[in-house]
Design goal:
By secondary structure, the protein is of the alpha/beta class. It has seven helices and seven strands, in the order βαβαβαβαβαβααβ. Strands 3-2-1-4-5-6-7 form a seven-stranded parallel beta sheet, sandwiched between helices. It is globular and about 50 Å long. It binds NADPH dihydro-nicotinamide-adenine-dinucleotide phosphate. This is SDR family oxidoreductase.
Length: 246
């Protein structure tokens, strides 16, 4: 049985730029009804407008993934708009890289709140909907940093290691009709480096990845691949790096 993306209701957190925006646009092109969430509603309005102008179906809602109630309302909004929810994509994330001994403790908290608690809030919001109909799919966007740590990425990697653990555990706990997919991008074009507050580290990060970044659409295609598989095929994990990143 070939499950098409056509007609699926897909909610995406962090859809106001970068990878989330690319996922929303790509899946809408393939016929999904996409529900976009993020804090920058001006961006969401523009992106949704562009999708609709191309004949796609899209709605948006203001969303802060650190607020559990807000994420629950976001999932409910998707079902109200389109009658059901088929895929929930936990994509929102921050990457304020820094050395531990710079003690950017507020940024550690932000990363844990968005990258880890945000994902748990997404699961708490969508899983009851999926369990009620015994079908659904989570796509959790981690990073190659979900299995690799380097200087300045300690806390960021810790949050992504956590999301990998959460995804693996979730897959084993839920019904076989609920799929859990992890997509781990390498260096990808987006606004992510903007979250680095240390000007020198931000410069280094941008310099390091100036050449051969993946277009965000490459990650969107990986997400589409996982969604379009037959219902009894669970693509557990996809890792995508630009060829220049080893
Ligand atoms: P962007 O900075 O372009 O996008 C991040 C998105 O997260 C934005 O839409 C932002 O929206 C949203 N976001 C941040 N905080 C919140 C919040 N509290 N509530 C809701 N949404 C929030 O970067 P990317 O597209 O690169 O990031 C997407 C994901 O990809 C992240 O999880 C990131 O860790 C991961 N990733 C990216 C890589 C890369 O090289 N680009 C590599 C590996 C992983 P807003 O500010 O409007 O709320």
């Amino acid at each position: 049985e070939q499950i098409k993306i056509q007609g699926k209701v897909v909610a995406i957190t962090g859809a106001s730029s970068g990878i989330g925006e690319a996922i929303a646009k790509h899946l809408a092109k393939l016929g999904a009804k996409v529900v976009l969430g993020a804090r920058r509603t001006d961006n969401l309005k523009t992106i949704t407008g562009a999708i609709i102008a191309q004949g796609g179906q899209a709605v948006y809602k203001s969303l802060d993934v650190t607020d559990q109630q807000d994420v629950a309302s976001f999932a409910k909004f998707a079902t109200e708009q389109y009658g059901t929810l088929d895929v929930f994509i936990n994509n929102a994330g921050l990457m304020p890289l820094s050395m531990i001994n710079a003690y950017k403790i507020k940024e550690w908290h932000q990363m844990i709140d968005v990258n880890v608690k945000g994902v748990l809030h997404g699961i708490a919001a969508a899983l009851p909907i999926f369990e009620a109909k015994d079908s659904g799919q989570f796509v959790n966007i981690t990073s190659v940093g979900d299995r690799w740590v380097g200087p300045t990425s300690t806390v960021y990697s810790a949050t992504k290691f956590a999301v990998r653990a959460i995804s693996d555990g979730l897959r084993q706990e839920v019904s076989e009709n609920i799929r859990v997919t992890l997509v781990a991008p390498g260096a990808t074009q987006s606004e992510l480096a903007e979250t680095i507050s240390d000007p020198e580290l931000k410069k280094q990060a941008i310099e390091k990845f100036r050449i051969n970044l993946l277009p965000a659409e490459a990650i969107a295609r990986a997400v589409a691949y996982a969604i379009e598989q037959p219902a009894d095929v669970d693509v557990n994990e996809i890792v995508v790096r630009p060829t220049a990143q080893k």
